[in-house]
Structures are given as C-alpha cells and as structure tokens.
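Sequence, please.
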C-alpha cells in the first residue's frame, strides 16, 4: 500500500481545522453584508442620512418645547407601539445589538419572548441607545463602536480611549460638534452629571448631530416621545454647547459631553 506523505497529510489536517474554525466563527447574522464588509467607508454622511431616514419614518416629529418633568403626559397611543413602527424599533435592537444579547429580540412593544409589555412598562425597554447603535452599525462602524443598550457603555469607552473604539469624549465648552457626532445628557437621577464625573455608570441619552449651522445644532434621537424625534440645540458663536466657563446655552437640557466620532471620511 502506498504511504501518504506526511507533509500532504499534515496540510490536509490543517485545512480541515481551518474550515472547522471558520464554521464555528460564522459572521454575525444580525449585521447585513453592506455594514459587515462594509460596502463603503464609515462616513458621517452615511450616519446622518440613516438618522434622517428613520426620523422621516416616524413622521418627521420635532420637539423644541421645554420638557415638563413635573407633570409628564403619557399619550394613549405611543408611536413605538404602532404597526410598522414597533417592528422598526425591533430592527434597531436586532441590528444594533450583538448576536446572543437578551435585548436583540426586543421590539417597540415586545420582549424577547414575544410578550407584549404594557405601555407603562416601556421604560424597561428604552431604545435610545439601541437607535444610536443601529445608526453606527448601519453606517459601517464595524468593530469600532461599543454597541450597547445603555449610553454610558460607549461614553465610558470613548472617555477611556479604549483601543479600536472610534469615539473620543470631548468637553462641551471646548469642542464644537460636527454632523455625525453625538451629544449627551444625563437623565433621571443623573441629570447633574458633568464631564469631570466620567467614567460613570449613568442614566443618560445621546442624540446624533445631523446639521450644524451658526448658532444652532440640529439633532435626532431615538425614544424621544416614544419616537425618532428632531430637536434644535443652541450653541455659542464658536459652535460649542457651552461657554468657556462651562455654562450650557440650552435651557432645556444640560449637555455634558460630546462624542466625537472618528469616521473614515
């Protein structure tokens, strides 16, 4: 019987091991090919266009009113639970979160088992960070963004300048946000948070800057009034959210940090 050369046998075994390894490391099926490859460079233009597309899907809502935190009004029908939109929120969770996460199966009205949760319980399923994660993933951030169900996770990663993270935390009085950047506030028990408190496991919210003109930023955020909603934010003559002494110009929201996104272009 002819003996099989050892080198040939070794090469075959190595190829088999490689194939097995590839099978065990299948690409994340949550991520569409256009974002996983990606088909285009990670760009601010893509992030802005995606955020605006989602804003249009929710009816182009704009909210520049002073929030009434003392007497908040809960609408009888929330946009996030309407037909066509609760599924849209499900896309944010599915694409924005990593495969296998508990949150990846959530929607605008269901938990991961499909149970419909009451509108009064939607705070447990707040999707504003999922929206940001979705925008960044769809824009082609790949492994450069810490996809998370809570804003503090990617804010702290940006502050720490973790290797590979395409974010940098900037002070609101020194950095002028550009389209594609994120601006952040604390909410509920974290409303008094400041940049100097970072890193901190805080309750918060961040919006995507979609336009920057003299005196005002236009921003879009998820889960604002249970929808994707636009706001206009006043800025200084130099484009910063706060004056050099740290005084935030916006009387409604205490913006405490800017996440500068390191786009490919």
């Amino acid at each position: 019987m002819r003996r099989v050369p050892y080198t040939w046998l070794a090469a075959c075994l190595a190829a088999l091991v490689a194939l097995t390894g590839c099978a065990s490391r299948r690409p994340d099926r949550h991520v569409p090919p256009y974002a996983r490859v990606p088909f285009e460079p990670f760009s601010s233009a893509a992030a802005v266009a995606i955020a605006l597309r989602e804003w249009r899907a929710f009816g182009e809502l704009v909210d520049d009113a002073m929030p009434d935190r003392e007497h908040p009004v809960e609408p009888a029908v929330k946009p996030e639970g309407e037909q066509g939109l609760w599924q849209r929120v499900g896309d944010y969770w599915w694409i924005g979160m990593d495969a296998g996460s508990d949150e990846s199966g959530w929607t605008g009205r269901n938990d991961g088992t499909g149970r419909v949760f009451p509108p009064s319980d939607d705070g447990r399923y707040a999707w504003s960070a999922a929206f940001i994660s979705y925008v960044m993933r769809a824009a082609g951030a790949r492994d450069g963004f810490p996809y998370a169900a809570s804003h503090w996770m990617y804010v702290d990663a940006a502050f720490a300048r973790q290797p590979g993270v395409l974010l940098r935390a900037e002070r609101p009085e020194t950095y002028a946000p550009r389209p594609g950047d994120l601006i952040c506030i604390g909410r509920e028990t974290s409303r008094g948070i400041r940049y100097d408190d970072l890193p901190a496991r805080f309750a918060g919210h961040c919006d995507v800057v979609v336009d920057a003109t003299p005196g005002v930023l236009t921003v879009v955020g998820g889960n604002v009034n249970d929808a994707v909603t636009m706001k206009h934010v006043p800025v200084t003559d130099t484009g910063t959210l706060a004056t050099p002494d740290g005084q935030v110009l916006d009387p409604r929201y205490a913006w405490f940090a800017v996440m500068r996104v390191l786009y490919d272009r």
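The first strand starts at residue 61 and ends at 62.
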